# Entry
Amino acid sequence: MPLGRRSTADDALVGLSLSGKTAIVTGGASGIGVETVRALAKAGAQVVLAVRNVGAGEAVAARLRAELPASAGALEVRPLDLGDLGSVRAFVSSWGDRPLQLLINNAGIMATPPGQTAQGFELQVGTNHLGHFALTTGLLPALTRGAPARVVTVSSDLHRQGNGARLVSALEKKPTAYTPFGAYGDSKLGNVLFTRALAKRLPAGVEAFSVHPGVIATNLTRSMHPALAWSWKVLGPLLMKSPQQGAATSVFGATAPSLSGRSGEYLANCAPKTPARDALDDTLAERVWQLSEQALATT
# Structure
């Protein structure tokens, strides 16, 4: 049966074994992160839940261990705060020379009130894009050792509301007019541009994809402005997928043999999809990469 909008993460893994593979899932303690962890572990992968709240991560891991079959891969919980580059560096350092096959950049915040990361970057761009940029580039040696390997970064079709100039300004710490969904769109545009630039830099055997999971019934609204959260809860159920369906495209991107040789593409509903025009701008992608590198070097 072809994969599509209503497919689940388990559907995306039919016929595949991940035994012997190690995966990291950021934000693995909530929403589609939990279902991504569940599916990968059920297929045999050893999965690391990289989470800001270790207690919540341990609770999810304990529940999944009780629910999954004995053949499932082991679960491990490690602390990671993507809004603090110091935390990201500590995570990378603690990983050491352990090979890695799957990195799922799943965590994110959405439509928050104005704020800043620990290093003073706009909160959504700094967390959703820059934190994952630092994590991924820091783990590239581990991914190279683990090849064949894949990096999957969860973006959103709301990247179409992003603006390249605003994204650049956020990485330069230059103030611009703030709107919650505008900044969210900028961060998600950053995810797609990062994946495009990353794919050109990866060694043989390592591939990268960005994905739109769909509109999911999760607790992502916890970080929204209250008025926006109310609107989302009222209108969202008309458009939403289940968390199991929302995790499908991430798992597909991480494992589908049909994607080999298509590194850098944007995926939705378990298939390649054309992103926004700005997301295909290689000059902008290189600018975002360079500014992201500079941000890491100066903080």
